[in-house]
Amino acid sequence: MSAEIGEQPAALEATLAGLLPMRPRIAQLAGGRKRVLLVARGSSDNAAIYGRYLAELHAGISASLAAPSVATLYDARVDLSDTLAICVSQSGSTTEIVETLEWTRRCGAITIAITNVEDSPLASAADLALITRAGIERAVPATKSYTTQVAALAVAMDALATSAGKKGLLDKEFSQIGDHARAMLATPAETLDAMAGALAEVDEVLTSGRGIAFGTTLETALKLEETCLRPVRGLSYADLKHGPIAIVDHELLTVLVAGPSGPTVPGLTELAGTVREKHSMVLGIGGDEEFRSACDLAVPGPDASEILAPLTLIIPAQLIVERLAHKLGLNPDVPRGLRKVTQTD
User: Fold this and answer.
1) Beta strand pairing status for 110-115 and 128-131?
2) Strand ordering across the sheet containing 252-258
3) Is CATH 3.40.50.720 the right assignment for the domain spanning 188-327?
4) What is the overall mean pLDDT for the chain?
5) Is 186 exposed, middle or buried (0-12, 13-18, 19+ CB in 10 A)?
6) Would you say 308 and 173 are in contact if contact means Cβ atoms under 8 Å apart?
7) What's the CATH fold of domain 2-175?
């Protein structure tokens, strides 16, 4: 896991180099489609949450996350003739995701696969496959496959923005992603160790965020759960205020994840103060200086725009989780009860 975290700058650069030239083809394929349906599970589902925000905020196209059981268990009849279905799977071999893609086509959708395996069933079944260049990922927890999926979704949504007549992202911003990843890998080890040490002292963890970085919040929670066997609840801070904040006390540690700027940062800064008043220790990832000052321990995120920060914002969390696993005497490469490819019905 540690080695694969370190491979992310090269993996992101290779993925963007391969996929950015495909934007005209993506735009042509999606021409006239008014909705985006995102299909995924696990870490890929957290990447898809980012894709949903980007579709609506950047491309101006309505987007939603699919419930695959509607296809695989109920075989519902749904009119998707105005829909672009984007199905995301690291292996491209999860039967449920492949079957859901095939169901969307039967319902009239145009389909795009995002996968790390070029000759996978998912890539073969789609109208167009966007192949990430993460390389073989041997550790069970997704690290470089996750960030390259987020990059692929950014490329796809930029193509949709262009086809909708909106301004696409500047290529200059994409060209800086590798450097942003390297900067995240250079996060001071002593701060990461201190944050991992704080997490090792508690049994209850809450993660919270909102907006474009919310998928990163949920991916942070998932990594803590699967790699460190910590029960973690990931919530939007809006949902947190609707009742669950009652559970926050000195026995619970709060991890807040924020983009570098944007309308969600003030609310997360306020939330940091609120949970500290309830005697919960607060760890912060990203945000601005005011946000980080409101936390007990914090690390900066990438010096990127809010819209592209999620491509690398997860890296400090990955580094913390890998350290925490070792502190707990766990093997981060092979979490208990998990396999690289998970099959669901």
Assistant:
1) parallel
2) 232-236, 204-209, 252-258, 282-286, 297-299
3) no
4) 93
5) exposed
6) yes
7) Rossmann fold (3.40.50)
Residue with tokens 């934007």: 23
- Model confidence pLDDT, tens digit, residues 176-206: 999 999 999 999 999 999 999 999 999 999 9
Q: Residue 264 carries which side chain, given as an amino acid letter?
A: T
Residue-wise pLDDT tens digits, 210-243: 999 999 999 999 999 999 988 898 888 888 877 7
pTM (two decimals)? 0.94
**Partners of 337 in the β-ladder:** none
Torsion of CA 103, 81, 158, 95, to 10 degrees: 0
CB atoms within 10 A of CB 124: 12
The full set of domain ranges for the chain reads 2-175, 188-327
pLDDT for res 156:
97
Q: Can 2-175 and 188-327 be said to share one CATH topology?
A: yes
pLDDT for 74-112, tens place per residue? 999 999 999 999 999 999 999 999 999 999 999 999 999
Identity at 89, one-letter amino acid code: S
- For the chain, the 3-state helix, strand and coil shares in percent, each to the nearest 5, are 50, 15, 35
Which residue is associated with the tokens 């975290």? 5
Q: Which two tokens stand for residue 308?
A: 């592209």
Portion of the chain with pLDDT greater than 70, in percent: 95
Percent of the chain with pLDDT over 90: 84
Helix, strand, or coil here: 297? strand
Sorting pLDDT into bands at 50, 70 and 90, what band is 340?
Answer: very low
Run of H or E residues at 258? strand 252-258
Long-range contacts of 29-34 (CB under 8 A, 24+ apart): 29/84, 29/110, 29/112, 29/127, 29/128, 30/84, 30/110, 30/159, 30/160, 30/163, 31/163, 32/82, 33/61, 33/82, 33/83, 33/84, 33/110, 34/61, 34/62, 34/82, 34/83
